[in-house]
């Protein structure tokens, strides 16, 4: 477990459902994850699968208090009232009366209005913690300086090839935890057969994927890997029985290219700015 800046405890390893568009497959995958032992489930209004997540949680038979549910407000629902409306829809689809974590999905539109709504929902006890996604240093700092509540989490593309070292310096000063989306870089740069990661894994009889997830845990970074395959769901969860050496972590650190492979937020910010949406 990792403690957030408001004292809330969040599992360090969760299960993500981005791009699982088949609702039956999503429901089955989440149910498998919960049976395997995952207790953090990360979804979003923009994924259009919150209802499947809610169904899986209900079918699991687990108590609501034992599951940490994270969701996000999409950019089409930016602003105070739209966020309020979207939040109620999210609760209905997830079949719950509160969220453990609610995030601003993208730093565009009236995200300040969205944050005001989230602060209000947090104070009302409807959300245990609030945070953001895809916020680089400038917008994250702006949000911190212009509002009462500091984000508890910033969810970013984070993997061995993009380790977010500069961003983490700003986040650490404000005790904001990093949550890694795309921890496997969506398979890019042959990450699963990377020589460094494979060689480290051989020492512990682990896969490159397991090495990545263990590295993130030891770096105090929350990870939310996604899979629809039973063996991979179980494999990703099996990272408690080994630890990386300092030499291992130094080798992984040297893989950092300090640039995104999946989503270039800096370039996207410029596109939105030119269209008057940023």
TrEMBL record:
Molecular-function GO term, any one: oxidoreductase activity, acting on the CH-OH group of donors, NAD or NADP as acceptor
PROSITE patterns: ALDOKETO_REDUCTASE_1, ALDOKETO_REDUCTASE_2, ALDOKETO_REDUCTASE_3
Residue intervals of the NADP-dependent oxidoreductase domain: 13-255
CDD domains reported for this sequence: AKR_AKR5F1 (cd19133)
Superkingdom of source: Bacteria
Similarity field: Belongs to the aldo/keto reductase family.
Full protein name: 2,5-didehydrogluconate reductase
UniProt organism field: Ligilactobacillus pobuzihii
